[in-house]
Amino acid sequence: MSITRDEAVLGGEPRIEGTRVGVRHVAAGVLDSDRSPAHIADQLDISLSEVYEALSYYYAHVEEIREFERENEDAFERIHESSLKPKETIQ
């Protein structure tokens, strides 16, 4: 299987080996965006078989992928809340 994990790449999220394409990105492209697997393969410059491997991994590890999604959303929210904001609005 060409799905791998490495803490130094994508924070340890499952991804297609040799790429920075995460399983959740492939799944989101096919499932959430209603794109064909062939379209996602073309857009992400991966093979169609890699798309199907990523989808297979996704379905076998749905809770794991959802946990990465929650962690990512939480991190985004923390960054958003701690970003520099002007003290007053300039009019």
UniProtKB/TrEMBL annotation:
<dbReference type="Pfam" id="PF04255">
    <property type="entry name" value="DUF433"/>
</dbReference>
<dbReference type="InterPro" id="IPR036388">
    <property type="entry name" value="WH-like_DNA-bd_sf"/>
</dbReference>
<dbReference type="InterPro" id="IPR007367">
    <property type="entry name" value="DUF433"/>
</dbReference>
<dbReference type="InterPro" id="IPR009057">
    <property type="entry name" value="Homeodomain-like_sf"/>
</dbReference>
<protein>
    <submittedName>
        <fullName>DUF433 domain-containing protein</fullName>
    </submittedName>
</protein>
